[in-house]
Design goal:
The complex is a heterodimer of chains A (569) and B (325). Chain A is 29% helix and 32% strand. Chain A is an alpha+beta fold and 569 residues long. In chain A, a hairpin with a 6-residue loop joins strand 21 and strand 22 (456-472). Chain B has one domain (2-315). Chain B has 11 helices and no strands. Chain B has helices at 2-48, 50-57, 64-77, 81-108, 116-137, 144-161, 176-209, 224-257, 265-284, 292-309, 311-315. In chain B, helix 9 (265-284) runs antiparallel to helix 10. The longest helix of chain B is centred in the N-terminal third of the chain and has 47 residues, at 2-48. Classes of the chains: A alpha+beta (569), B mainly alpha (325). At the A-B interface, helix 3, strand 8, strand 11 and helix 9 of A face helix 3, helix 8 and helix 9 of B.
Chain lengths: 569, 325
């Protein structure tokens, strides 16, 4: 450091910054302190010391970098919250590293104690910095711009000029000019001290406070919401009560009475695709679910649900996540009495909607029956004899192939069982590849006899189904509001310059000699140009032809502050 | 019709790559020439003390705004014929590049940024656009070799490895947010790219200023302080865009997936990048972290952006699976 800016330019209106902010006073030279016994710190002293450490720029910076680093593992391994099946697969594939990573909480990175510790410390540090700064900024907003430094020559953009008026006229003109440009002004003798850009600090504080707001609303607000999933088959309906859901994840403070009762019915589902038969590629282009909704005791009203456009109904938002075919299957006993009948959602396995489904018939037949079925909307037989689907569109040819098992379905243990999978450990295959009978193949309307005289099975009809996500999150709007406040504060704090400008009038024989200079508070590359412009306008206002600054008024005004020129002037 | 336009688009992109490579070669020749002439000029400069004194003045506190111009001056006046040629070539390549992009968009009948090839095409186009834009404000043609080098490389990799034919938008991408979210993300990327280039130049320059042997052409570059200030201005704009990307992405996620934030891999990396650049901005304001350390953060941040675009897109599982591959 060759020379510090004149100390009288530091004023009460300066933003309060942590001691290691680069604009704060440098700490006292260590050489003078070494050798002197440091005073012992008491408990309060230590607390104060740690608080100062925590709220310093350096700590905030290290915590920020740690936060970035700690988030990385969350993207490398699957997360329970976003990809639970991925975690199960990982466990199966790498049991050893799973043990280690699981005990470290890496599968729940973003809820893990170490990740939480980092962001909580960061936010404590942030609050510890923002609160005193806010108080200080309130005071600064009422403070007067600082005294004019004795020598302006050493400051940014120093220019001088001359006017044939007296000092008080020059001062009054400068004051009104600066005020018009949004400066706060104060007259000190024959000089004007002006400051602008308080919004920069305001924006900074708003940005950081809004971040705290986001954190708090996310943490608290999420607890009042809930998320549920539901598969609805065409012509059937769903009612928004707890038992209506296939799966349900309540927030911490959820209460069943929060559920607003309403009903949803799927009337029709349309999937549109672009087919590229040569490359065998199928691209979905549109999914539309025509629904009917009904409030409690109300009428059914039509509604349309699409991907990217959720349906708002009864305090919830409904999202279209998946869709597929649901063949209607009827199983009859040897006497022809139906023992099972229903539309079974088949889960799509590829882009052409080759789908897989499971039917379980526990009662009514001589044996419990389990069926694994494949559905091909537009079947085509491969050389191997296996089928595949050519397009996702169904028609008269749509084919159902069924592998049939008999034995114990395992439904009597009371343990929850996945309806989409069949546990074949205590079942015998009676029709299928490798069994005595071939797999059953049915087109719509066709009936086949089950082996061993068990009865018959019919492919009665074809319906569509949709899988829906149903959400209620009261904090969403708040989070968005805070996010928008944060970005506005950020823009203001990054792009509004905070600067001081001084004009000094020194009476001489022919009138007054005018001096101008500025001082940047924070990043401000445009300061020199701004001072030059003020000088020019001020002198023009005083009636000096062409501004008449020594530094020139043409495009070169930008260069007026270059050191070479300054030394010449 | 679609296929013809798509083919023309590809021809335009190939031509753009060729011209970018040409521009890169001429930029490198320019740098080599500067190294040679800078070495020849050393005694004279040291004797006259003009450059040296200008730079030493650069460290006068409170005079940041002043110095940029002084020190940029030698670089600006030093724009050689090579550099001017290379810059003209860059503009020609960029016009071809934008042409390719527009044709692709017309052929597809939608915005041309819906799969990885198109992201690459668009992202590199914006990078060069930002480079040209910043040049209207400050002369940073000295970064030409860096920008054209990276862009030619990325474009080449994209056309060879991830090119796919035009496909319609899947329902998940049919949203106005595709236009906004992705476009602003590429804008942020463009500014981060130029900022990282300036930070690399800053680090090299700082090394030289500390008396270590450096590349000769650095003598004709602005001082490390000027480079740092320039880098900061550029990165801050990128940061503002990135913040917007994050918010717009969250709004879209809420529309499409029913939650505004779910720590999907792409979301995690967008967050990491945001935090890294937030760290950069704090580092710039922290004593002991200004200068080289903050420059490293800008470079690490941009590396994370590239990582997010390449490795995360291709190898990581997640909801943002729109590479089209």
């Amino acid at each position: 450091m060759t020379s510090a800016p004149p100390s009288d330019t530091h004023a009460a209106s300066d933003p309060l910054r942590p001691s290691d902010h680069f604009e704060s006073e440098a700490p006292a030279d260590d050489t003078t302190a070494s050798g002197i016994a440091q005073p012992k710190l008491g408990p309060v002293g230590y607390l104060r010391f740690f608080w100062r450490q925590l709220t310093s720029m350096r700590t905030a910076l290290v915590l920020l970098l740690l936060l970035a680093l700690a988030a990385v593992p969350g993207s490398l391994v699957p997360q329970r919250t976003s990809d639970p099946n991925g975690v199960i697969q990982y466990k199966a594939a790498n049991p050893d590293s799973y043990q280690v990573l699981n005990s470290l909480g890496v599968f729940e990175t973003f809820g893990s104690p170490w990740f939480s510790a980092i962001y909580l410390l960061l936010f404590i540090s942030l609050v510890g910095c923002v609160v005193p700064r806010t108080k200080h900024h309130f005071d600064a907003l009422r403070a007067r711009p600082p005294k004019t430094p004795a020598r302006l020559q050493r400051l940014v953009g120093f220019t001088s000029g001359h006017a044939g008026t007296d000092a008080s006229t020059a001062v009054a003109a400068a004051r009104s000019l600066l005020r018009r440009q949004g400066y706060r002004t104060e007259v000190y003798g024959d000089s004007v001290s002006a400051e602008r850009g308080y919004l920069r600090e305001t924006g900074n504080l708003i940005f950081h406070t809004a971040l705290v707001g986001i954190l708090v609303t996310v943490a608290l607000g999420g607890g009042f919401g809930y998320t549920g999933q539901k598969v609805i088959v065409q012509d059937s309906s769903f009612t928004n009560v707890l038992t209506g859901y296939d799966s349900f994840n309540p927030g911490r403070f959820f209460d069943e009475s929060q559920l607003v009762p309403y009903s949803l019915r799927l009337d029709k589902f349309t999937g549109e695709y672009q087919l590229d038969v040569i490359k065998g590629k199928t691209q979905p282009t549109d999914f539309t679910a025509d629904l009917s909704t009904r409030a409690q005791d109300g009428e059914w009203k039509p509604a349309v649900l699409k991907v990217n456009s959720p349906l708002e109904v009864g305090d919830t938002k409904v999202y279209l996540l998946g869709n597929g075919y649901a063949p209607v299957i009827t199983v009859r006993n040897p006497d022809g009495v139906p023992v099972y009948s229903g539309a079974v959602p088949f889960l799509p396995q590829d882009a052409n909607l080759t789908s897989l489904g499971v039917v379980k018939v526990p009662d009514g037949l001589a044996e419990q029956l389990g069926i694994i079925g494949f559905f091909y909307p537009e079947p085509i037989q491969k050389n191997t004899g296996a089928y595949t689907s050519l397009t996702p569109y169904s028609g008269d040819d749509s084919l159902l192939t069924l592998t049939v098992y008999q034995g114990d379905l395992g439904l009597d243990t009371g343990a929850p069982v996945n309806v989409y999978s069949l546990d074949i450990s205590s079942l015998d295959m009676i029709a299928g590849r490798g069994a005595d009978a071939a797999p059953l193949e049915l087109k719509q309307g066709e009936t086949a006899q089950l082996p061993n005289g068990l009865g018959s099975i019919e492919f009665t009809g074809l319906k569509r189904f949709v899988s829906l996500d149903i959400h209620h999150d009261p904090s969403e709007g708040w989070v968005l509001a805070f996010a928008l406040i944060a970005i506005s504060g950020l823009l203001v704090s990054l792009f509004i310059p905070r600067r001081r400008v001084w004009m000094k009038a020194i009476p001489d024989a022919a009138g007054v000699r005018l001096e101008y200079a500025g001082l940047a508070r924070g990043e401000d590359p445009g300061l020199a140009a701004a001072v030059a412009e003020i000088a020019e306008r001020h002198q023009a206002a005083l009636g000096e032809p062409g501004g008449g600054t020594d530094a020139g008024t043409d495009d070169g005004a930008n260069d007026s502050a270059s050191p070479e020129r300054r030394m010449k002037s | 019709m679609t296929e013809t336009l798509a083919a023309y688009s590809l021809v335009a992109v190939y031509s753009a790559i060729a011209v970018y490579v040409l521009a890169f070669i001429v930029y490198v020749l320019d740098l080599a020439k500067r190294s040679a002439s800078a070495q020849a000029a050393v005694p004279a400069v040291a004797g006259a003390g003009s450059v040296a004194s200008a730079e030493s003045l650069a460290y006068r506190p409170g005079a940041t705004g002043v110095l940029e111009r002084t020190v940029v001056a030698p670089a600006a006046s030093g724009a050689s014929r090579y550099q001017r040629t290379a810059f003209a070539l860059t503009i020609i390549a960029w016009v071809l590049h934008v042409g390719g992009l527009v044709l692709r968009g017309i052929a597809a009948g939608r915005v041309p940024w819906a799969n990885m090839y198109e992201f690459a095409l668009m992202g590199t186009g914006v990078m060069v656009g930002v480079f040209l834009l910043v040049n209207l404000w400050r002369d940073i043609r000295f970064l030409g070799a860096y920008v054209t080098g990276i862009v030619a490389l990325l474009l080449g990799l994209a056309t060879v490895n991830v090119y796919i034919d035009i496909a319609p938008l899947p329902p998940a991408l049919q949203s106005a947010w595709l236009v906004i979210h992705v476009f602003v993300a590429t804008l942020g990327t463009g500014f981060f790219a130029v900022g990282a280039g300036l930070s690399i130049a800053q680090l090299l320059q700082e090394r030289r200023e500390h008396g270590k042997p450096g590349l000769g052409f650095l003598r004709t570059f602005p001082s490390s302080t000027t480079l740092e200030n320039l880098a900061y201005r550029v990165v801050v704009v990128g940061f503002a865009f990135w913040t917007f990307t994050l918010i717009a992405g969250a709004i879209w996620a809420e529309h499409a997936w029913g939650r505004y934030w779910g720590w999907d891999t792409k979301e995690v990396w967008t967050f990491i990048i945001w935090v890294l650049f937030a760290g950069y901005i704090h580092a710039r304001a922290t004593r002991g972290w200004r200068g080289a350390r903050s420059a490293w953060l800008a470079i690490i941040g941009f590396s994370a952006v590239l990582f997010n675009f390449t490795v995360v897109n291709l190898l990581f599982k997640g909801l943002h699976a729109y590479s089209g591959l």
